[in-house]
Amino acid sequence: MKDHSEQDDSGDHPLILLTGSTGFVGTHVSRHLVESGFRVRCLVRKTSDTSRLPRGVDLSIGHLLNFESLQEAVRDCQAVMHVGGLVRAKKVREFYHVNRDGTSNLVKAAREAGVERFLLCSSQAAAGPSKPDQRRRWDDPPRPVTDYGRSKLSGEEALQKNAGDMWFGIVRPPAVYGPYDIAFLTLVKWIKFGFKPRLGASGLKLISLIHAEDLARALTLALTVDHPSGAIWFATDGVDHDMSELMEAIERALGKSARWITIPHWVTPTISYFVEIYAGLRRGDTALLSRSKLNELIQPAWTCEDEPFRLATGYREKYNLADGWAQTVEWYRREGWI
Questions:
Q1: Which end of the chain offers a freer environment for a tag, N or C, measured as fewer CB atoms within 10 Å?
Q2: d(CA 44, CA 238)
Q3: Angle (nearest 5°) at CA 78 between 101 and 59
């Protein structure tokens, strides 16, 4: 680990502490920040695989639940971009320990250190699903439907409660896809094998999406924009996608033609139960398709309104659905993931 004092302090580039840098979204964010000229310090664990991180970043060993390590991590930083969090957990309390308590610890450490700006990458899961005919807005009352979503909302509330005079903003991305993603990878493999799964006749129909590289740019814009503190924004690719459209984009990228298979609603809780058991016993892991996750998949729509964010920051997406999935599938192939 490079000592903080060894980092090149030439120029006036701000020093940003980034959490979650070794994860899916954080990988893209760390690279974008470095390419944009920021000095970046990454909060990582001793066991973290840092091979994806760009050259030149500073590493600070620590954990969101270790306050002393956070005090060291935020030292001399002008801003914090909090991307880290727990997406899967074996027990509900683990979500809250990391996504709520860990966020609270980081906010307090940043405020005490005189950090100027704090951006939280939350999730649409904190806001909850939308109606089929109405995108979810930032000022709609939050109605999360999973433990993960409720814990992310608690993280937002911890930031709002403890920020004090420190500038802060919150970005709630919808479903994110792109290189390094393992969540959509399962769907891609299904389609490669010739099947397009759908959950019942009344399952998820509409969805908002954002490519990970676009999200990295959006988060950077949100962190640096001249805007009053306390904003809550959604950031998307600007289009509500029908699930059939999503499947077709993946099919085209794969060069495959898949057939629909319908999984009845009544059987999915049983499937998820055995998937959870298998994940725990065979891999010592947590399942991507958990019973809690089903609460998201059975909703009719997960769309959100990002026009306020575009107006405030000038954000414009780089990837449409077709180009984004062509790039992602090409990456999966090149890396041997499919």
A1: N
A2: 33
A3: 70
pLDDT digits (tens, 9 = 90+) for 76-90: 999 999 999 998 888
Strands 206-207 and 241-242: antiparallel
In contact, 231 and 118? CB cutoff 8 Å: no
Distances (CA, A) of 30 to 7, 37, 223, 230: 16, 11, 14, 24
What pLDDT, in 10s, does the model give residues 121-150?
999 999 999 999 999 999 999 999 999 999
For the chain, count helices (H), then strands (E): 13, 14
Query: How does pLDDT run across 308-322, given as a tens digit for each residue?
Result: 999 999 999 999 999
Q: Judge residue 249's burial from the number of C-beta atoms within 10 Å of its C-beta, 0-12 exposed, 13-18 middle, 19 or more buried.
A: buried
- pTM, 2 dp: 0.90
Set out the domains of the chain in order of their start, with CATH numbers.
Answer: 13-177+211-236+303-317 (3.40.50.720)
What is the C-alpha to C-alpha distance for residues 309 and 314, in angstroms, rounded to an integer? 8
CB 304 within 8 A of CB 234: yes
- The DSSP bridge pattern shows strands 301-302 and 206-207 to be parallel
